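Data deposition worksheet. Section B asks for the primary sequence of the deposited chain exactly as it was used as input, without tags or linkers unless they were present during the calculation. Section C holds the resulting structure in token form. Section D is free text for depositor observations; keep each observation to a single sentence. Incomplete worksheets are returned to the depositor.
Section A, Depositor: J.P.
Section B:
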Amino acid sequence: MNATPELLRAALALAAGGAPALPLRAGKVPFGNCPACTANACGGRPNMKSPGPCQCPGVCHAWAAATTDPHILTSPPWARAWREAAAVAYHPGGAGVTVVDLDDAAAVAWARASLPATRTVPTTRGEHWIYRGAMASANGVRPGVDIKSTRAYARWRGPGTGTMAALPDVVRALIVKEPRPVRPVYVTAPVGAGGGQCPHRTPAYLDRGIAMAEQHITEARSAVHATVYRTFLAVLSAHGRCGCLTDTHMQRLFTAAQTKGETARHCADAWTNALTTLGL
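Section C:
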């Protein structure tokens, strides 16, 4: 007996409840993009609220294909997918929920000891714990634990049991990376002919400059390595020849960079390259 009608009914029920649904192939994987969308040549679908230029009627772009529109779910372009489907999935973030995917008995034991009780759904090897509220998704947040919410899909395994609790901070904290420990790096700061005093304005001028450089590094959202180098270059360009920089100033900059994920070696290399560029 072909199970496709049952899967489609499950998808329609999910959609009616506000959970964007999509079919999965064998192996719990989404259907591949159509030829026109291969390698996101169409521009892709970056998120559910802003689908982008692609208007492909097929089951493209994995989780972003998930929909609550029954007309799309039952449309002819989706018919072949449902005939070949092995399971139903949904986009948790689109439904306003977060799935804590516990992949084995050890992960389940950890959740029972560490997380607030909520709705649970048994899986092949573990459980899905479902919380009310969306967050970013991440895999491997701890052994046997994945977070599936926005920009991800989860296999539908039934409604589960228990009352769904609000997404707790302890779950949100699972995807927050611990900052790398800052290791002291000792590089001799250049000392020019200024006798240790900054000739630009007052000693406070250097302090403000270092503080602004720290802030610039801390606020970097991308291209951190390039930002660190450019910041080092700017500081050395302003103060590298007058002899006012000390190891303490330099270490403040290195600490800011390492807090953003730069290694001690990267900091030392960036500092040395800036010195070389300026001929110091």
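Section D:
DSSP finds nine helices and ten strands in the chain.
The first strand starts at residue 21 and ends at 25.
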